[in-house]
């Protein structure tokens, strides 16, 4: 007969497994349909609704948890991006990985927009924004990004180009495979100091590989 | 004693005056408060609600009429912009006048977003968008705007930069007086073909004046 401590440990392991199954199911269900119900998510996770509500008091709390996890995972991937060297090359790499993250968690974010407050959304965006800000500041200090417009405006422009690409894909006016290059090419040009030549994204990528 | 024809004419003149007063009042009230009520608009116009509803069957119809008039007026101002000569100079002039129009009718558009369908909004945006498209196409044909990204993407980027500037002003991160130059500088850089130098908006304006 197992000790009380052993039972407690087994219960905790069960709970962790359930939470993971619920979050995985929520990610799948909400990506497919931002309006997916708690019942559907519980069914997909193979747990009862009572169990689900034991871990997440409301649908909003569950959406918050799954979006937070997705953003943290995306953020971990972005942490692996090499932001050293020429700030323009680094920007292209950052855009490529950011776009991958957006594609992976895009539908989840749609669900989040409905369920989470604007303030919470801003909180969740803070780290990715800080990373872009840091890179923009470095590029300005090194003279490869323009300083005649504010860093805030440049970072906001990058942000809007990404959202714009998502909207253009949605409208069938941009091929998904071209999105990252289009965003990077536009941002790089927009960031170039007046009087300096606009870099070619292809040329940057080639230089990076060689 | 006036003839029946004379009475009819006087009545028609009255009706025209009332419609103009109602549209002017609606523009003022809705700019101040996008949720302004029909009663408030009638009061400001100095007409009764019955008279107002005699001309506009619903609040949505009134909002449609006042936004349509504002966009047509803005469009008439944009028609006066000289789009000839170097497409880059023309883009700066177009951005400056477009921004003026956006500032003038911006709050009205907020009211419109609530009251009008997305399709109707797209319809009302069609002419300003066509003008920008024509200019972008000419700049591409003449080699001063890039052709490695689609014209649709470039026009959409210009559109998003304008909306972005409005959002940044709203958030207190951009001075209203700097908006037009910021938008024009960013769009010009974004439109520059890779390998070509980014033009200075100031230099363009100087060249234009000299």
UniProtKB/TrEMBL annotation, chains A, B:
Entry protein name: TetR/AcrR family transcriptional regulator
Keywords: DNA-binding, Transcription, Transcription regulation
PROSITE patterns named among the record's database cross-references: HTH_TETR_2
DNA-binding region positions on the chain: 37-56
Residues covered by the HTH tetR-type domain: 16-74
Record InterPro entries: Homeodomain-like_sf, HTH-type_TetR-like_transc_reg, HTH_TetR, Tet_transcr_reg_TetR-rel_C_sf
Database matches in Gene3D superfamilies: Tetracycline Repressor, domain 2
PANTHER family on file: HTH-TYPE TRANSCRIPTIONAL REGULATOR BETI (PTHR30055:SF234), HTH-TYPE TRANSCRIPTIONAL REGULATOR RUTR (PTHR30055)
Pfam assignment, any one: TetR_N
């Amino acid at each position: 007969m197992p000790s009380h401590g052993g039972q407690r440990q087994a219960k905790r392991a069960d709970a962790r497994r359930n939470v993971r199954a619920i979050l995985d199911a929520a990610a799948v269900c909400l990506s497919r349909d931002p309006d997916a119900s708690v019942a559907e998510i519980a069914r997909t996770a193979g747990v009862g609704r009572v169990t689900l509500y034991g871990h997440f008091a409301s649908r909003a709390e569950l959406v918050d948890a799954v979006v937070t996890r997705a953003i943290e995972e995306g953020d971990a991937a972005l942490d692996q991006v090499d932001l050293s060297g020429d700030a323009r090359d680094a920007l292209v790499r950052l855009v490529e990985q950011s776009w991958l993250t957006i594609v992976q968690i895009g539908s989840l974010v749609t669900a989040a927009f409905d369920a989470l407050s604007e303030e919470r959304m801003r909180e969740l965006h803070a780290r990715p924004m800080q990373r872009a800000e840091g890179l923009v500041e470095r590029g300005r200090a090194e003279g490869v990004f323009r300083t005649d417009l504010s860093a805030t405006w440049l970072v906001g422009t990058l942000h809007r180009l990404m959202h714009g690409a998502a909207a253009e894909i949605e409208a069938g006016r941009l091929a998904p495979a071209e999105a990252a290059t289009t965003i990077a090419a536009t941002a790089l040009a927009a960031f170039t100091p007046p009087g300096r030549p606009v870099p070619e994204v292809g040329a940057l990528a080639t230089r990076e590989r060689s």
